[in-house]
Amino acid sequence: MTATTSRIYEKKFLAVWATPIPDRVKALFTEIFINVSELVKYVSKDITKTDTFHLVIPLNCLMDLLNDPIYKFPQVVHIDVIYDGIYDLKKIQRRFNFEPEKIKFHTINELLRQLEKVELDRTLVSSGPIDRSTIDAIISIIEDRVRAKQQATFNRLSSFLKQCAFTSLHGLPAKNINDIAPYFICSSCKFIYLQLYQLECGHQQCKVCVNIRKSCTICFKAVLRDKVLLVRNSQMKMQNLSIYCSNCEWTGSLKDYQRHFKHDHYKLITGFIDNQEINENISSLNSDVSVMSLNGICIWEIPDITDMRNNSASDEQKSIYSSSFYSFSNGYRICLRLFLNGDAKAKGTHMSLFFVLMQGNYDDVLRWPFEFKITFTLLNHLSPNNNQSKFFWPDTKSIAFQCPISNMNIAYGFSKFFPLDLFEQNENHYVKDDRILIQVEIDVLAERPTLPLISGAGELVNEEELVDTTYDNLPRLLCSSDI
């Protein structure tokens, strides 16, 4: 295939992609290779037979490509390098030293836009209609890549996820939800619940939604907690329901479905969150949120701990953010912020960990201020019974727990979450494959204590001193760095 760009006519459009690609997407490329060595052979053979090459490779193939002289040839005019996150990109700062003129870095979503442009250019050249099915196929390969990466992560961390899955489960999705009588289903989150509560208006919600929502989703009347009544015998009636699993072909009673869901679909119960790129220009996290927990528990996997700790110690990167996530279906949007070398109050002595409320899609119908118990846990790979946990109850007078009026509220949490000397002494307990796991649990059913507890938690202070180093042109800096 051929495609035009704004400046030159691309003769060969080549890609390295290890996973299968739909035929419609293959049509966008001249050739697709399963590894970079095959691509190098192809370019070396055809270097005198064509005008130009445009290469698309994953980040893990970059070193192999740079070890071969073909990338310096003038016929190779563009090299797009695909990376999954800003932390992957930052890692190569210490590994490569090359001229950046023809190399550009893209996330997987940016690759989508690149391929859409190729398809559009092809259409303009041929004067034919834009093929929507091709665009859908492009989206599908990105989704497949994301799913494969998530599955690999879940497989690696299955023991922790199973451990979390056997905590309380607040709601269950079902494939035959439309065939089940409405009085078995929460009108707010649309999940099946063992216990439903009747509101003053006569409609029913589960206990989670009673606690987090300020109004009924049907008639929009205010939810008064002191006038909510448990629907008696609902548990007995629901046990006789026949449920079709929403994720496989299993069918059975509600009681058996709970066991099936926890055993076979534990990875869907606990939300799994990763690191998030921060756009310093707009001071916001990516607004695309797909992570949601069914039990109020999420696990944050933080990779490349060695590099990140070195960066933190040198003040190159003071803090990192988690991706944003929803605590429950139709619930609060949240992210976490971690200082591996401590914030201003605990620098060099403790890890500092903070909870951040963000603007979400359901803020108008949620109860404010946020008032629910929050527990942070540093997971122990060798001995799960020795996980390190700290919890706090929100200070409902703090601006950190009011309805967000900007993208992110003030962070609130522990400056002294975990001692660095203890972490270093027991590093093999908490670090595995250069990764650590931090769990956050939002317990909306716990009863708030009458007397305030001294937890050591508070607002993040001296925010001006805690801004990470920013770069006007990160790819150029990475390409020219001599570190």
From TrEMBL:
Where does the MATH domain lie? 295-442
**Name listed for the protein in its UniProt record:** MATH domain-containing protein
Q: Which Gene3D superfamilies match?
A: Apoptosis, Tumor Necrosis Factor Receptor Associated Protein 2, Chain A, Zinc/RING finger domain, C3HC4 (zinc finger)
Q: Name one GO biological process term.
A: regulation of canonical NF-kappaB signal transduction
Report the domain of life of the source organism.
Eukaryota
| Xref: InterPro entries | MATH/TRAF_dom (IPR002083), TRAF-like (IPR008974), TRAF1-6_MATH_dom (IPR049342), Znf_RING/FYVE/PHD (IPR013083)
